[in-house]
């Protein structure tokens, strides 16, 4: 039964019904502070467009100030749907390179020095299927290091501020969102993470980069799940999501067929992915949901991959990963 449910959920992640929670449903966010990593492009850009045009203070974290400036021009010139007449918020750049852990502490310190609250953090930045063998500055497999390890470290710095924010914010409004993907269904067996050799340093044959991308997206789910265990009774809602299959810069490393043929048939406009992330941030359902929340396009509660779920519930894979990441990131604190 579980298998059948999972199969139909996966199918509906690829062919979702229309969004029901859209730009006009965002509550007043005046005075609230948001962080979006990778907010200068694709899904993150669409989310920042909505937050800005609804009046939020938006911190856009990324590695290129030029890309940020281009995004600001784009956002200001093209208001989010239905939000043209609302008072605007603000946009600020936070420089960080998730492929280099030494950049995370200074970025976090800069952020903590200028804001006194953090309502929602969307750990959205990501890289997909770079050439096999691509590595971060610290030698992590590039997708693992960028999508998982760096966001984990960033969260270590930001968690105290979100906990403080939660003390006086309305219940369920302070959220930490770890952006995953339907690719989390395709991590390595048995439970989505190759714990014996996460970076595949000792493998005779390197896996396909879609497998390591899938593993990194399982890593995002596991972080969200374990963080929820640690902080849900302290007022932070930690959840994960698949934004949907979207035409963005994420496919920059993909082959011609995927980008131009399959992409045309299966990829949707990035605004819809922004709506999935918006739902994760503001919809009431995730706050009312019992247990862990995994959101699917374009804003519904979905079903985790069954093996990933078994790993979490029966083999404590979330706790195991959390302990590994804590140990590995201690020296960058
Ligand atoms: N598009 C899809 O079909 C899809 C499907 C499922 C899940 N997702 C997930 O959705 C998220 C957003 O993806 P997207 O589709 O919007 O892709 P995108 O257009 O490529 O945006 C990704 C963002 O991440 C940033 N980024 C990458 N590496 C970085 C680094 N080392 N340091 C700082 N920022 C970095 C990129 O900045 P640069 O321009 O500097 O690289 C870019 O702003 C990702 O986590 C992705 O895995 C996307």
Strand order of the largest sheet: 3-2-1-4-5-6-7-8
Main CATH class: Alpha Beta
Q: Which second-level CATH architecture applies? A: 3-Layer(aba) Sandwich
| General form | globular
> In which range does the helix fraction lie?
40-55%
Structural class: alpha/beta
Element order: H for helix, E for strand? HEHEHEHEHEHEHHHEEHH
Q: Mean pLDDT, nearest integer?
A: 94
Number of helices: 11
Say which molecules are bound, naming each kind only once: NADP nicotinamide-adenine-dinucleotide phosphate
- What share of the residues does DSSP label as strand, in percent? 5-15%
In this structure, how is the largest beta sheet organized? 8 strands, mixed
Q: CATH homologous superfamily - what is it? A: NAD(P)-binding Rossmann-like Domain
Give the oligomeric state.
single chain
Q: Return residue spans where pLDDT drops below 50 for at least 5 consecutive residues.
A: none
Number of domains: 1
Question: Radius of gyration, rounded?
Answer: 18 Å
CATH topology label: Rossmann fold
Kindly report how far apart the N and C termini lie: 45 Å
Would you report the number of β strands?
8
List the helices and strands and how they pair.
Elements: H1 2-14, E1 33-37, H2 42-53, E2 57-62, H3 65-77, E3 90-95, H4 104-114, E4 120-123, H5 142-168, E5 175-179, H6 209-231, E6 237-241, H7 256-266, H8 270-282, H9 284-288, E7 294-296, E8 300-301, H10 306-315, H11 317-329
Helix pairs in contact: 2-8, 4-5, 5-6, 6-11
């Amino acid at each position: 039964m579980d298998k059948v449910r999972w199969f139909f959920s996966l199918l509906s992640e690829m062919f979702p019904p229309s969004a029901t929670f859209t730009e006009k449903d965002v509550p007043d966010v005046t005075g609230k502070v948001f962080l979006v990593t990778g907010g200068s492009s694709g899904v993150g850009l669409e989310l920042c467009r909505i937050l800005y045009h609804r009046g939020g203070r938006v911190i856009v974290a990324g590695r290129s100030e030029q890309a940020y400036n281009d995004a600001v021009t784009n956002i200001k010139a093209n208001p989010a749907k239905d939000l043209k007449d609302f008072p605007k918020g603000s946009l600020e750049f936070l420089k960080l390179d998730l492929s280099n852990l030494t950049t995370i502490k200074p970025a976090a310190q800069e952020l903590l020095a200028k804001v006194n609250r953090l309502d929602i953090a969307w750990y959205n930045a990501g890289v997909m299927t770079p050439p096999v063998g691509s590595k971060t500055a610290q030698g992590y497999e590039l997708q693992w290091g960028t999508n998982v390890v760096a966001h984990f470290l960033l969260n270590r710095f930001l968690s105290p501020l979100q906990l403080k924010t939660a003390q006086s914010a309305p219940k369920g409004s302070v959220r930490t969102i770890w952006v995953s993907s339907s690719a989390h269904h395709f991590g390595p067996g048995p439970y989505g993470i190759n714990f014996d050799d996460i970076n595949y340093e000792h493998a005779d044959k390197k896996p396909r980069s879609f497998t390591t991308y899938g593993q990194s997206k399982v890593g995002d789910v596991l972080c969200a799940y374990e963080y929820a265990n640690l902080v849900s009774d302290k007022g932070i809602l930690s959840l994960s999501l698949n934004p949907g299959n979207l035409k963005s810069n994420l496919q920059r490393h993909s082959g011609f067929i995927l980008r131009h043929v399959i992409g045309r048939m299966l990829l949707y406009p990035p605004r819809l992915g922004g709506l999935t992330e918006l739902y994760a941030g503001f919809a009431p359902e995730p706050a009312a949901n019992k247990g862990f929340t995994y959101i699917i396009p374009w804003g519904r509660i979905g079903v985790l991959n069954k093996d990933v779920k078994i790993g979490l519930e029966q083999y404590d894979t979330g706790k195991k990963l959390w302990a590994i990441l804590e140990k590995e990131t201690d020296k960058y604190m």
